[in-house]
Specification:
- By secondary structure, the protein is α+β, with helices and mostly antiparallel strands.
- The protein has four domains: 4-409, Aminopeptidase (3-Layer(aba) Sandwich); 415-533, no CATH class; 551-630, Alpha-Beta Plaits (2-Layer Sandwich), CATH 3.30.70; 637-869, 3-Layer(aba) Sandwich (Rossmann fold).
- An eight-stranded mixed β-sheet has the order 3-4-6-5-7-12-8-10, with helices on both faces.
- Helix 7 packs across helix 12 (371-390) and helix 11 packs across helix 12 (371-390).
- The chain starts with a helix and ends in a 6-residue tail after the last strand.
């Protein structure tokens, strides 16, 4: 259903008179004429008149504020367009969306939404589906600049919206009558402001025109890698729109590098993930070929397909929306120089591959590429894709909504070998991880059941309270995709028997259960148990103990303990962590248990966090007689992330989520690191060059001075910070930087030859030592994320907290070969460095926030380094 505000806007739009406009050119530029006049005398200026230049003009980019103003004006003066602000962004900007269609369709949009949602419901008969498909209209989603430096697409959307709002032609009549366009001018409005405003502000200055930092507050370019964890606000906004309006196709307009095809379009490359419904992919391939045909007809050369982007796991290109029946029509257009200036090949030869193949029928024959061409190619592809939907509305509705839903609802029949359900047993070691996994499925609108009583499935008993996720439901494919052990289809990933193995476009696993630390068991036969539907996912119910005389105790097994530690620190509550196993409150507590002297502030904070996470709090009337470390009150954390470093951006998101007291380390801080920080974290991607050279102040405005290089003096100051008593925590490639900085006694022993060993984004078996502080709370074995990372041979005094098993295949999910190369090597290692300490993790255990199961390693290391040996004591 549409929100109330939408109804008011629609009512206002419907009171306006129909447009009376002269026919306009319908070529790819599509912005002919200067003014369109409405019956009331209102005018809609052409983009050239409104902005003062044509979209695609070299060196000129329309700012997003003015684009939004223009779209509001168009919506106000055209009964074909409705403009909405559907949400606010991470930085508080408007997230706009537009609906474009025939006025009658806009008037009937509520009914169209109801019909399309009904088509996507289980249990609809074929007869009813046919009737709904004939009556309704398909929604076609088109989105620009999810990646904000890919500026040409939003500029092109200005012309596209103007044309559809004003032109009277056979083309626009067909499109508007038979389809509803849902236009997202930008998938990342914050980035549009940051990138384009920076470009415009730096005109005529010595500064670089390309924005030098992340163009999304947290994740930058990785906002296209968030389609199953749903961590970012913008991700969730778009998914909600897709869930509501059920588009049959989504045209996601992107740009690529300067040297590839001038425009890449489906068919997609191998390999094909087994979680994909063939209807959505075949339809997407059709969209791509329709666009390629239109581009070829207009003599727009250099159009390629196939050899680039695969459709495999749903974190990336495939996306969540394909499981809703949305065909993903991706276009990747070659970029220009510095966003908006002509790019010319250095050798004078034509750009892109010159091999004339079935995958590129007409190689591009010029050595220069311009923003004007980017806009022109984008519009041609968009117009073709829209038209293809509008000329076949019933087919798209019936197949992509009804058929895809029906296939998902009987998945084990459609895909033999698929389990009937996945069981998430009650009583798991980390209740917060179970809660977060179920919240993902809840957001995706999966049907979740919970057992009222104990039951047996596949000969195994499960306790009451266990969760059951049946695969016979509309999103059965998505459930299976996220919970199955991923096996890379090596045979399918070769185009011939002797052809090389095609590596995936992105990672090789998205097993959410393993990433979060949850056991999910596939069940081959239908579960026969007393089940009840979960209407709202909530944390595991917990009860606070009576106020103890000795201490509150929180076991360390959950990664949600990060909330406990950060919250207690913020509340100013003394916190101890045991360094050995002990007995109390009728149970055994592992090393790393949080020991908190009782106080009103402690109780209030523990009660808040426990209720929010489902993590139990225990009470002991006896103060545990156990060795322990007292956390430094108000532990000050610094994060070195560097400019435009996505892993560092993800780290800021994680630290913010858990309420850690941190700041990003700026260049000025190196003059007194010890006076500002107790622990410094090196994010993956931070190199010696990041620290020493950084951003050049002569090429970047003063607001980026925080990321300037600090030279050899600053590099030495960071080393002195550690040896003088500070704590350093390094993740992923940052571990190599730490090794170099501190001359740590380890060496990376991973073979550089990928023919001998390769694990490009997989989960590998790993062992942990839970009695070592860095691994407090970890199980003895659990998979770790590995993406062409480091693994260490220890050559001196050091303590390994995590190592790879000494035998067997280490692959847990995804693709890897030659894993024996890691046998016995260390991943997480701690060191004493002078008066200070350091802990490194060779693999990127914080990758995109996905591997939450290993997040305790980071939190343990952050807080333990500055802590002091002390027995728990009453406050």
């Amino acid at each position: 259903m549409l929100p109330r505000r939408t109804a008011r806007v629609l009512a206002a739009v419907l009171t306006s008179a129909a447009l009376v406009a002269a026919p306009m050119r319908s070529d790819a530029l599509g912005a002919g004429g200067t003014v369109t006049r409405t019956a009331q005398g209102k005018t809609i200026p052409a983009p050239t008149n409104y902005f003062g230049f044509a979209m695609g003009t070299t060196g000129r980019l329309a700012g997003f504020d003015k684009i939004k103003q223009y779209f509001r004006l168009v919506a106000d003066r055209s009964d074909r367009v409705e403009y909405q602000v559907v949400d606010k962004t991470t930085l508080g900007n408007d997230y706009p969306a537009m609906f474009i269609s025939d006025p009658r369709n806009l008037r009937d949009l509520r009914q169209i939404v109801r019909d399309n949602q009904r088509l996507a419901e289980p249990g609809v008969s074929e007869q009813e589906a046919r009737r709904l498909s004939e009556r309704s209209k398909p929604v076609y989603l088109i989105e620009g600049t999810l990646h904000s430096t890919e500026v040409g697409n939003t500029q092109a959307l200005v012309d596209i919206v103007h044309r559809l709002a004003t032109e009277r032609s056979e083309y626009t009549d067909t499109v508007l009558k038979n389809a509803v366009l849902l236009v997202l001018p930008s998938g990342n409005p914050d980035g549009q402001h940051l990138v384009v405003d920076h470009f415009n502000k730096t005109a005529g200055t010595p500064y670089n025109r390309v924005y030098p930092d992340l163009y999304h507050k947290y994740v930058g370019h990785d906002n296209n890698r968030d389609w199953f964890m749903f961590t970012q606000r913008e991700t969730r906004t778009r998914v909600r729109l897709e869930q509501t309006y059920r588009p049959v196709a989504g045209h996601y307009m992107h740009q690529a590098g300067t040297g590839g095809p001038r425009l890449w379009t489906p068919p997609y490359d191998e390999p094909l993930g087994n979680g994909v419904d063939p209807i959505t992919i075949q339809s997407a391939n059709t969209q791509g070929q329709v666009a390629a045909r239109a581009l070829t007809a207009e003599n727009k050369k250099g159009v390629g397909s196939d050899d680039a982007y695969g459709i495999f796991w749903n974190a990336d290109v495939m996306g969540f929306s394909t499981f809703l029946g949305t065909s993903l029509f991706l276009t990747e257009i070659a970029s220009a120089k510095d966003l908006a200036y002509p790019y010319t090949s250095a050798d004078g030869k034509p750009l892109g591959s010159q091999n004339k193949t079935i995958r590129m029928l007409q190689p591009y024959d010029k050595n220069t590429w311009t923003l004007e061409q980017i806009v022109a190619y984008a519009k041609t592809a968009a117009y073709a894709g829209i038209e293809n939907i509008a000329k076949n509305p019933e087919s798209w509705l019936y197949n992509n909504l009804y058929q895809v839903t029906r296939n998902g609802s009987r998945l084990p029949d459609v895909e033999p070998g698929t389990p009937e359900a996945y069981v998430i047993p009650a009583g798991q070691r980390d209740p917060y991880a179970v809660y977060e996994l179920l919240k993902i499925f809840e957001f995706g609108r999966v049907e979740i059941d919970q057992a009222r009583t104990a039951f047996t499935a596949n000969g195994k008993s499960y306790p009451a309270g266990s969760y059951v996720l049946r695969t016979r439901q509309p999103l059965g494919r998505w459930i299976h995709q996220l919970l199955q052990k991923d096996v890379y289809p090596e045979k399918a990933a070769r185009k011939c028997a002797d052809c090389p193995l095609i590596m995936p476009y992105s990672e090789t696993t998205d097993n959410a259960a393993l990433l979060l630390g949850v056991t999910a068991v596939p069940v081959e036969k239908a579960v026969t148990a007393s089940l009840q539907r979960v209407r709202r996912v909530a944390p595991q119910p917990v009860r606070m103990p009576a106020e103890p005389r000795g201490a509150y105790l929180v076991a360390p097994e959950s990664y949600g303990v990060a909330h406990v530690l950060a919250g207690l620190q913020k509340a100013g509550v003394p916190v101890f962590r045991s360094d050995e196993e002990f007995e109390a409150a009728g149970r055994t507590f592992a090393p790393g248990t949080v020991v908190v002297p009782p106080s009103p502030a402690a109780r209030q904070e523990l009660q808040r966090v426990s209720a929010a996470t489902g993590i139990p709090v225990y009470g002991s009337d006896e103060l545990p007689e156990v060795g322990a470390f007292r956390l430094k009150p108000g532990t000050r954390v610094g994060l070195i992330r560097g400019a435009n470093n996505m892993p560092g951006g993800w780290m800021t998101w994680m630290l913010d989520q858990y309420g850690v007291n941190y700041k990003v380390v700026g260049a000025d801080d190196y003059a007194d690191l010890a006076g500002r920080y107790d622990t410094i974290v090196l994010a993956d991607g931070v190199s010696r060059n990041t620290i020493v050279n950084g951003l050049d102040p002569a090429k970047n405005p003063p607001e980026f001075a925080w990321a300037r290089g600090v030279g050899e003096k600053g590099w030495d100051a960071l080393g002195d910070f550690v040896s003088g008593g500070g704590n350093l925590v390094a993740v992923g490639s940052g571990s190599e930087t730490a090794r170099q900085l501190l001359d740590l006694p380890v060496e990376n022993a991973v073979p550089s030859d990928t023919s001998k060993f390769n694990a490009p984004g997989a989960l590998l078996r790993a062992n942990y030592k839970p009695d070592v502080p860095a691994a407090w709370g970890m199980p003895g074995e659990w998979p770790v994320w590995f993406n062409r990372d480091a693994a260490y041979r220890i050559t001196g005094e050091a303590t390994a907290a995590s190592t790879y098993p000494g035998d067997g295949d280490l692959l847990a999910s995804g693709y890897a070969h030659g894993t024996g190369a890691l046998h016995g090597l260390a991943n997480v290692v701690s060191f004493e460095v002078g008066k200070g300490s350091a802990t490194i993790a060779g693999s990127e255990i914080t990758f995109r926030s996905w591997p939450r199961a290993t997040w305790p390693i980071v939190i343990n290391s952050i807080y333990h380094g500055p802590s002091e040996k002390a027995r728990p004591a009453a406050r």
